[in-house]
Amino acid sequence: MPRLRLPIERIEAIPARVPTIRPHHLSFATVDAMDVVIVRVTAGGVVGYGEASTIGGPRWGEESPEGIAAIVGTYLAEAMLGQDAAQLNLAEARIARAVRGNFFAKAALSMALHDAVARAGGIRLADLLGGPQAIHLPLAWTLASGDTARDIEEGERMLALRRHRDFKLKIGAHAPEDDVAHVAAIARAFEGRASVRVDVNQAWDEPTAARFLPALAGAGVAMAEQPVAAWNVAAMARLQRANPRLAIMGDEGIATPQDALRHVTEAACHAVALKPAKHGGVAGTRAVAAIARSAGLGLYGGTMLEGTIGTLAALHLYTTLGDHAWGTELFGPLLLRDTLATSGIEFRDFAIHLPEGPGIGTELDEDKLGFFRTDRSRTSLP
Ligand code: MUC
Ligand code: MG
Fold this sequence. Notes:
With about 375 residues, this protein is an alpha/beta fold. It has two domains: about 10-125 and about 365-370, Enolase-like, domain 1; about 130-355, Enolase-like C-terminal domain (TIM Barrel, Alpha-Beta Barrel), CATH 3.20.20. The protein contains 14 helices and 13 strands. It has a seven-stranded parallel beta sheet. The chain has a three-stranded antiparallel beta sheet with strand order 1-2-3. It has a three-stranded antiparallel beta sheet with strand order 4-13-12, with no helix packed on it. Helix 5 (about 150-160) packs parallel to helix 6 (about 175-190) and helix 7 runs parallel beside helix 8 (about 235-240). The protein is globular. Magnesium ion (MG) binds near residues 199, 225 and 251.
């Protein structure tokens, strides 16, 4: 039986910086541009794309755009050039062994290989993964303008556009009393029309979380993401036990399958934010999702605010995983002022829609990449 052979001929990692439509305020940084690394792989003459992004450089996690580009372009390229991309299980195992950690870099290459193989077969990435269980997924939006009135106005616009009816609020940068007042005002404004969740991005210690999570639950918040430090799984468990009305979601604390197992065995959360970047690619994401699902934890299709390429790769993957109890937040391209892809994504009816392939279903816009790339001076306008 002949089989597909796709020897990897070229691996490129290109850093780029794309401005956001407004400053995005998180507990640890305010972001007005997203740093992304586009990975382009050529295998058997077929080109596939992947993307890694960081939020505020190495501040959300340990990896920086410069580091990602160096890891992909040097160490992962050395390990993978000449290997058969079509042997995806072997390829992912080799990537995992080639360097320690560096999950964002590994994920971008994993996505690009999967995209190339799907394109070579003329099918969607989701079909390569066994086929989607849904062709659209619920789409949350993050209200993080830094101002309560502006957030309410932005939320009203999203509802009127029928784009989002789940809002995640970024808190933790201000006094907790002020954060709770901010969240309560927004929850009141959207009561009965939209859900409100919060993401503390590790900013609180356990006593602060113990004191203020009940107030958030009382204001109508149904889910609180990573209220305490990623390492503090024991505190997550105590907080979850003390706040049964609230789903505590693990994000920064759940990268590897072992992290997921630990959260399960310690009953440390009711929900898990998936992010291919955190999990090192397709195989890692599926492993974490399987553990979470087996333990009855709700899945959330998370984002690192990637542009169109990374967002599409995550979307194809998430559609194959079954029910996402908390929906997705794959809105990255909507927060960016421009795109590095030749086509957009369909965002409508409060959902993100799976495109037709092949692969992820779009192409890299070389002119835009030429304009936004940060590794050489700009030569032309987009
Ligand atoms: C995070 O921690 O979840 C996802 C959405 C958003 O606004 O920030 C990210 C990161
Ligand atoms: Mg988060």
